[in-house]
Every structure is written in structure tokens, then in C-alpha cells.
């Protein structure tokens, strides 16, 4: 027997997006709502995993209660001016309301209110919908594997005095992810760094991912100075490993302020190899350019205390399962992956 299509209520849809934003997967959301994972995926897909903004009626518009008052007053043979005085509205407002909803004789409050809701659906067209030249230019850059951030920045440099050729990177992301608008075909998501078919929460975690390991005597990222958090000065680095085929690895270091990036070839991903590579590169830097290092909780940096003792650089570690806390390095690694895809021999 064919299973009936599940249609979510507005409250259920709100719950779907809330759970998705918290990092809950399709299957877990489906268990909460007693729905198939595919149904949850479909509900999220149309808006690209981005929760639509709730519609809010303008306070100046007639309410359903006022329309009921109009209906009752019309039945009582009251004039339009008398109705306007009673509701403290302009006579022209009442006149237009009655005339556009089948006149005095056939006016119905519920039908008039539903019609007003339908007519209010006039979404403002986005920059990429209006400007075809800009849309084609953005699409061509996406095909070249440019990120939306790179495209938005390049447009402002290339067309400094032409505002209609500017677009924010968030608009580009939404144009790809939100399928219902069909501004840029969703297949262009494959050109993005992470190739996600929809927007994922920063807390999103696939089942089967490895659990975190314990770093002994590590400084928490929450102990970082405000100067580091605000990117006020140079010398604060974020780092991670990028792995390739045949057990080959490189380490990436990114300065939080300048975004200057260093790639280090590693003999292996063991703690000793990573320690020696980091020690060598940091010793080549002036002391003012090696103020701190932030890493994930990988055991490759188990010798962080030795690094601190040798050159005096404090090493901070992210919270478990929180790679977004090193967002600069994560984005850089995605860029590195563009040139060194998975299964590339990094030797």
C-alpha cells in the first residue's frame, strides 16, 4: 500500500528548522515528528536548509476582526462613512476594501481577509534576479571554483563605482540553496568548497564521526585574550592537518588577522613529526609574529607543552566537536582541498 504523503503543519515546520539548526540529522528529526527522513529532507530542501522569515502583517492593514465589523455594519445598512468613523479608519480605506471584495451585497470578511493575504505575497526581487549580467558573471566565477566570498570581494574591486554590479556573498549562497526561487540552479552547489546540497548548521555532525580525544593540560579556547578574539594584531595562528593518500599529510597555519597561510610538509601525523615541523617554522619567525596557536583536539599536537616550553607560544584547543571555533583555518583548508583533492598524494 502506498504511503500517504506527510504534510507538516507550520508548527512542525518550525520545529524541523529549529532542530536542523541545532545540528540534528534527518533521521533524528524524523523520529521526533514520526516522519520519514526523506520527508524531512524534502521540507528542508526547498529553502536550502534556511528557515524562511515568518510573514508579519502590517499593523496599518485591516484585521479579520475589523472586516467582521464591516460585514455586520453593511448588513445593518450603515454608510461607508459611518463604518469608517466606527473603526477610526479613512472612508477611502473602507470604500476600497468593499469594492475590491464583491461590493456591499456580497462582501464576506473571511474571503476578504484571505484575499488580502494572497495579494500581500509580493516578494522583492533580489539583485541576481534583476541583473542578468551580474548573475551570468557570478555563475561563471562559481564554475571556476571561486567561493561566494571571493566573488563578492572581487566585484567590489572590479566595479568600485558601479553599485548595481555588487552583491553580498550571502545572497549568492541563498540563490544556490533556495530551490523555490530558482535564481541559480542548485547543481552549482557542487562548485562550492564543501559541496553541500543545502546549508548545514555549524553543529551538524554525521553519525560515525570519530569521537574526540583528550588533550592533557591543554588551554581551552575560551581562555584566549580579547586581543586574539578581535583579530587586533598579527601573530595569532590557527592550525590543522590535511591528509592525502598513502599516509601523506601537510599542516596548515593561518594568521587570524592577515589570513597569511603556511603549508608545512610533514614526515607523518604523529605528535613528534608535527611538533618538529611547527617548532622549525616558528623559530624562523620574529617573536612578535608567533604570539599564539589554536588547534583542534587531535592527538597530533599532544606535545603542545613542549612547543610552549621551547618558544613560549601558548597553544589553545577548541571545544570537542566544534571546528567552527577555528573558522579561519577551516575555510582555508577548504581552499587547500580545491587544489589538493582527497586521495591526492601529498608527498
TrEMBL record:
Organism: Pseudidiomarina gelatinasegens
Keyword vocabulary terms for this entry: DNA recombination
PANTHER family: TRANSPOSASE, TRANSPOSASE INSI FOR INSERTION SEQUENCE ELEMENT IS30A-RELATED
Lineage summary: Bacteria, Pseudomonadati, Pseudomonadota, Gammaproteobacteria, Alteromonadales
Molecular-function annotations in GO: nucleic acid binding; transposase activity
Full protein name: IS30 family transposase
GO CC field: cytosol
SUPFAM superfamilies the record matches: Ribonuclease H-like
Domain Integrase catalytic: 228-347
InterPro entries, A to Z: Integrase_cat-core, IS30-like_HTH, RNaseH-like_sf, RNaseH_sf, Transposase-Integrase, Transposase_IS30-like
BP terms from Gene Ontology: DNA integration; DNA recombination; transposition
NCBIfam families: transpos_IS30
Amino acid at each position: 500500500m502506498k504511503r500517504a504523503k506527510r504534510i507538516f503543519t507550520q508548527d512542525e515546520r518550525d520545529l524541523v528548522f529549529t532542530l536542523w539548526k541545532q545540528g540534528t540529522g534527518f533521521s533524528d528529526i524524523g523520529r521526533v515528528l514520526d516522519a520519514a527522513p526523506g520527508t524531512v529532507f524534502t521540507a528542508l530542501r526547498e529553502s536550502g536548509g534556511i528557515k524562511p522569515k515568518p510573514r508579519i502583517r502590517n499593523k496599518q492593514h485591516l484585521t479579520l476582526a475589523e472586516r467582521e465589523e464591516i460585514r455586520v455594519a453593511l448588513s445593518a445598512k450603515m454608510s461607508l462613512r459611518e463604518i469608517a468613523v466606527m473603526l477610526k479608519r479613512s472612508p477611502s480605506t473602507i470604500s476600497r476594501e468593499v469594492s475590491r471584495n464583491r461590493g456591499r451585497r456580497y462582501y464576506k470578511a473571511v474571503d476578504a481577509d484571505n484575499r488580502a493575504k494572497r495579494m500581500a505575497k509580493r516578494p522583492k526581487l533580489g539583485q541576481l534576479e534583476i541583473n542578468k549580467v551580474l548573475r551570468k558573471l557570478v555563475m561563471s566565477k562559481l564554475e571556476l571554483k571561486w567561493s561566494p566570498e571571493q566573488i563578492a570581494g572581487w566585484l567590489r574591486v572590479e566595479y568600485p563605482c558601479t553599485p548595481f554590479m555588487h552583491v553580498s556573498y550571502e545572497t549568492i549562497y541563498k540563490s544556490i540553496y533556495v530551490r523555490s526561487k530558482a535564481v541559480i540552479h542548485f547543481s552549482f552547489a557542487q562548485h562550492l568548497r564543501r559541496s553541500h546540497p543545502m546549508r548545514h548548521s555549524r553543529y551538524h555532525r554525521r553519525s560515525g564521526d570519530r569521537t574526540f580525544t583528550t588533550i592533557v593540560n591543554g588551554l581551552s579556547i575560551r581562555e584566549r585574550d580579547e586581543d586574539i578574539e578581535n583579530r587586533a594584531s598579527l601573530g595569532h595562528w590557527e592550525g590543522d592537518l590535511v591528509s592525502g593518500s598513502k599516509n601523506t599529510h601537510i599542516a596548515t597555519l593561518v594568521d587570524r588577522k592577515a589570513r597569511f597561510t603556511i603549508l608545512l610538509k610533514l614526515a607523518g601525523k604523529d605528535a613528534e613529526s608535527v611538533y618538529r615541523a611547527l617548532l622549525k617554522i616558528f623559530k624562523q619567525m620574529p617573536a612578535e609574529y608567533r604570539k599564539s596557536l589554536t588547534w583542534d583536539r587531535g592527538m597530533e599536537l599532544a606535545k603542545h607543552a613542549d612547543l610552549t616550553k621551547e618558544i613560549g607560544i601558548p597553544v589553545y584547543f577548541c571545544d570537542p566537536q566544534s571546528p567552527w571555533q577555528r573558522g579561519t583555518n577551516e575555510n582555508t583548508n577548504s581552499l587547500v582541498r580545491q587544489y589538493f583533492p582527497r586521495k591526492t598524494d601529498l608527498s
